Amino acid sequence: MAAPKKAVLGPLVGAVDQGTSSTRFLVFNSKTAELLSHHQVEIKQEFPKEGWVEQDPKEILQSVYECIEKTCEKLGQLNIDISNIKAIGVSNQRETTVVWDKLTGEPLYNAIAAPVSPGPSDPVAVAPSGSSVPAAGTSSVWLDLRTQSTVENLSKRIPGNNNFVKSKTGLPLSTYFSAVKLRWLLDNVEKVQKAVREDRALFGTIDSWLIWSLTGGANGGVHCTDVTNASRTMLFNIHSLEWDKDLCQFFGIPKKILPNVRSSSEIYGLMKISHSLKAGALEGVPISGCLGDQSAALVGQMCFRDGQAKNTYGTGCFLLCNTGRKCVFSDHGLLTTVAYKLGRDKPVYYALEGSVAIAGAVIRWLRDNLGIISSSDEIEKLAKEVGTSYGCYFVPAFSGLYAPYWDPSARGIICGLTQFTNKCHIAFAALEAVCFQTREILDAMNRDCGIPLSHLQVDGGMTNNKILMQLQADILYIPVVKPSMPETTALGAAMAAGAAEGVGVWSLEPEDLSAVTMERFEPQINAEESEIRFSTWKKAVMKSMGWVTTQSSESGIP
């Protein structure tokens, strides 16, 4: 009996999506953006000491090989020819720091990890007011804190003023970003110190480690990163798009260990056979796209115009707004970052980035601390029963207020309660809180860049909650747009790879991207009601402020 014919789908593009808790490999049809197959492998986190978070770079690399192999097997079962995969893109957790030996390919220490999810939490970042509060764009779930003393020491010798780092990088001096993690490794790990002296050490974020390894490793691997990942190191000048000599000198980082900085869409190198990858699957396929995860989601959401923004709803929220070719610096504690550069000769685009610390986390709090729901999915059902908070407002300032308020003394409150209030109203108020906080950040972005938002594009697990999405449209008083294909981060990496010069199987022209269908939520209340609800929320926020007056009041000591 003749073997069944292979399905003809046109050019395909693969994407490695390497996150803090898992690795995935996904394959898309470049003509329709349809996801054809994928495989996912969980990644372990290691906690060698309190406040330390590490991951094994070799485990991360092996998980990539496994995901590629299993996805190729699944495509074979679907009768799809893997020789149609014409390019591979990489999207990755940002800021996680790796140093390895270029002669042996062995990591010299575990990767010092970045946070698992969005939301402010860095205890030693400097806020606009100068108070010691978390930096926008950092996480409250878990964060490696070993570099606190490194940051404190560095902050004492900042030349001129506190803007030395931020004016060049768009970032505050913070434990969150890669430069201080690398400084810690250079100060504390003898193997790293020795390898630097002997010119054997290479540094990179996860994208660099993966691209170097996948293109040959110690046998000719390409040591590079892209502008979006470089812009999260605190060593990269986002104006000149180069490693900054003054910053390298300030942090004491030898430039020879840094990767070459490339655009987000160009051929970096070709996949090489590895003993870890059966049958040399995808050997010779170009790796031609690279974006940090939030930039990848911005591209995957097709936010290519000034003023377009996306919000990713998870444990916290990550908001990025495309500010076009101009670098906009925030007066409200937001970060300035590189959005993307989609080709060697293409212009660089910038973004403002802000985060909501408590989004999905408030739903977990209702489940785990109050017990009013037994699973996160129940929140929508409870909220639907009443369709209103009945004047109840919930400010989840569990560890202070972040951008744009910057008040570490604030604490969470639920106010506006009456005898009529029940758990359904509190559930509704919790969903509203996520939306109000998102509006606070978007209003700050609008004040910083002066580009009014016409609609908000959304992704992330919480976007499956239709009541939340409708509330977001009502509270912003603009449409909220959700793609039917939720894998926007991987899609962005695939788009960058497929569009690269020399690959050319993916068009980034808006008219060619219309195959991606969207679900749209329009405001269903009038503008006056939207403003009244938002101003009442702000009144509730004011009530939450100044709650912790001394350290002892938090512990209940009079």
Automatic annotation (TrEMBL):
Residues 13-113, 141-300 form the Carbohydrate kinase FGGY N-terminal domain. Pathway: Polyol metabolism; glycerol degradation via glycerol kinase pathway; sn-glycerol 3-phosphate from glycerol: step 1/1. It comes from the Eukaryota. It is found in: Cytoplasm; Mitochondrion outer membrane. Pfam families: FGGY_C (PF02782), FGGY_N (PF00370). It is an enzyme of class 2 (transferase). Gene3D superfamilies: 3.30.420.40. Its EC number is 2.7.1.30. InterPro entries: ATPase_NBD, Carb_kinase_FGGY, Carb_kinase_FGGY_CS, FGGY_C, FGGY_N, GK1-3_metazoan-type, Glycerol_kin. Belongs to the FGGY kinase family. This is glycerol kinase. It comes from Hipposideros armiger (Great Himalayan leaf-nosed bat).
